[in-house]
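Can't attach files on this board, so I'm pasting raw text. These are the components:
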Amino acid sequence: MASIDVENVGKIYTGGVRAVSDIRLNIADGEFIVLVGPSGCGKSTLLRMIAGLETISEGQVKIGPRVVNDVEPADRDIAMVFQNYALYPHMTVKQNLEYGLKNRRTPKAEIEARVTEAARMLEIGQYLERKPKALSGGQRQRVAMGRAIVRKPAVFLFDEPLSNLDAKLRVSMRGEIKRLQRRLGTTSIYVTHDQLEAMTLADRLVVLNGGRIEQVGSPLDVYHTPASTFVASFIGSPAMNLVKGELHGDKLAIGPSVIDLNGYAPTSGAVTVGLRAEDLRLASEGEEALPFRVDYTEELGAQRLVHGSLGDQSLTIALSAATELSQDMRIVIDPAKLHFFSAETGKRLAGGAIVGAISSAAQPVA
Amino acid sequence: MQTKRTVFKSRLLPYLLLAPQLIITLIFFVWPAGQAIWQSFLRQDPFGMKDTFIWFANYTRLLGDADYMNALGVTVVFSIGVTALSMGASLLLAVCVNRVIRSQRFYTTLLVWPYAVAPAASGLLWWFMFNPSVGIIPYGLNYLGYNWNFRLNPNDAMILVIIAAAWKQISYNFLFFVAGLQSVPHSLTEAAAIDGAGPVKRFWTIVFPLLSPTTFFLAVINITYAMFDTFPIIDSTTSGGPAQSTNILVYKVYADGFIGLNLGPSAAQSVVLMLIVVLLTIVQFRWIERKVQY
Amino acid sequence: MVENRPFLNFLTHLVLILGVATVVFPVYLAFIASTRGPADFMTGVVPLTPGDQTWANYGALLGAGSTEAGAPPFLLMLGNSLIMALLVAFGKIAISILSAFAVVYFRFPGRVIAFWIIFMTLMLPIEVRILPTYKVIADLGMLNSFSGLVIPVIASATATFLFRQFFLTIPEETMEAARVDGAGPLKFFWDILLPLSRTNIAALFIIMFIFGWNQYLWPMLITTEPHYYTVVMGIKRLAAVLDGDTQWNLVMAGVILAALPPVLVIIFMQRLFVKGLVETEK
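---
Top answer:
Structure tokens for the assembled complex are below.
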């Protein structure tokens, strides 16, 4: 077991391409951290630097008290699960599990015990003598996990381990990974581009974009108070609606419509306004409301997503399946649930759940 | 040039791993080739004591040498003959094998083994078949009124070496043509059949054009084979005769240099041959690049 | 097949049978000749049915060779050829797989140059550098030795390219997983890469064995002692006796003996052989 400290880490490839910049991250012992972001955001590079498969160009990585920048992957006390499983095709499942232990000269009896234990935990006991070729995708995934578990490492590193599985298997394996990690209490870093996987697995999420950290926080923190328009549009499904708006005193203008903010305005001038689809609801008779023109709907069963436009900006709202639809509808949102982002930088201004905290700490320039 | 994304970190090991291959290549390939190039610019006095640097004189002498020009012509005829005969026969056999279903493996087995026969042995086999005193073919030709004798008749000699060289190469071409034919999608020939094209027309308008990469590749390989790998065939049958009619370039280098000991001119001939191989290799690898890319 | 035309099917088989007959006939005739006595060739035409001198001819050749032709016993030459072919095949594969490992799994100064030097072997067949190569061998004292027969021909660009190509198709993660599992470069090579290359090695071994066995000019250049003769150059000596005296029965028996081992290898390992051949040239 170990904590991990990533201190000002950057990666520049030969040829000068910068993949990762100035990453600072302290991971507590036993924590489950998920690195999430679109492809090319640097999440895999960061993981591979922690694993020792990429050299660290800037800063340093500490596993426990030890700086590991120049330590071989094998000596970092880590185990890794790869997207394509990377099982050795010419070895049986058992030999695959044993290989890392044998290389470490673990005593035979100890190897035997650990393999049996891992096989029991992952329910792969009956496949031990098979070659990977004779296993299904899910079974291979379990063997890959088993290979990590038998090592009893201080840290598990997962590089998109579920991407090659079909949707149903992915959900069940997701649960299993979570369960195993809880049980073993091993510090874990998990890379994925799937925000749902990230939300469900993480103790803390690290959202990466363009090689930089956009936000670190618990899944719910990140969901409720996204630090930027990027995070807002990446986390949550359907993605948060982002529309252009203008603040005048306590009034927010979106196109021709105006909303009274009841004191929630963080600044004035042009802003990007974030509205979660599920925070929007239909206006009741006589209520001050925004005009919404419906384009098409997507039925999800329990709810329906209605896509349409607010003035000339597109917007999606989530309504209960029972809601009656018409071509033109009127919608409202609680001003407390609005998210405000700077129109220039996309950074969060205030609003939503943390509005109180922000206004008491540092009042944005009015 | 490509490596793995992650590589092993070791300063010394890669050099140790490459050392055997590189040392052998440098000592037995690159150094002698350099020597040949150097010598091609020298004239050695008759006692082998003194070398004079004479620039391109050895090369210009080659151009004026009737024997060398003859060898050049012989090589062209021989290479084209071997390539055409061997590829034509192989393509016909490959198309036939591709048509049959159950006996495919049986015929293939019977057709691939000549690949393993040493060129020298192949030469002797046909030398025996064509031998004027005991050979079965001259015996048959005699009935038809033709007096076959490759020891006296240059054309007969050329035909002998072409057949012996082509025979050995049939298996190779055959295997590549079969592989090429099998990669032509069935849907294409079926579509052509629905469009009303008969088997022969289908072959020439659909299959053969799709086979052109294979054909081109094999043409280069066969020319290389005919020019460089047929030394044992010439040596075991005609030894370049009669009257130099089968004296291909490779054989002439050997005869002039190793037997005649004319170092300078022989070296110049070597260098010309090297340039030809370089050219053929470039053509061949351009083709591979194209094949890899799609 | 798109349609069924009986005449076309008949024609197909006819062409194939004629083709097979043409390919097989010279060897059949050689075999017949090797079963006959010397007197059978006096009449002017080759007989077409086997004779009764098979054991006498082959026995004489294997045990005693031919003194007129200066050919040592064929058993000795077959043994030499076997040793040479095995060493050549083994050597080519060993040094090529190591080179390919180095250029794919390491990054180091001079990598590209090394690759080009290996590539050059393709452009320098022995035929174009006979004399200077002979001189190098002579200077190194490698004439009339197995090291002289084998070492200079085991550099192989084709085999190196094949292994390089194959290594590049192995997933990146295989090596990364092995590194995390604590395997250094040599351990990875031995435990993972070599077992994964098994089929390629076997296929290449067949091709290279045939290559080594069929060497002609090379052994002819550097062996002057009958003790080191290989069988392929030996049969030429049998045939080179003054033509009037050619012992056709012995020459053809020699040809059969020289051709048989590699032919058997191909026939019994056809699948591997085809794979090896088609992949080496890709």
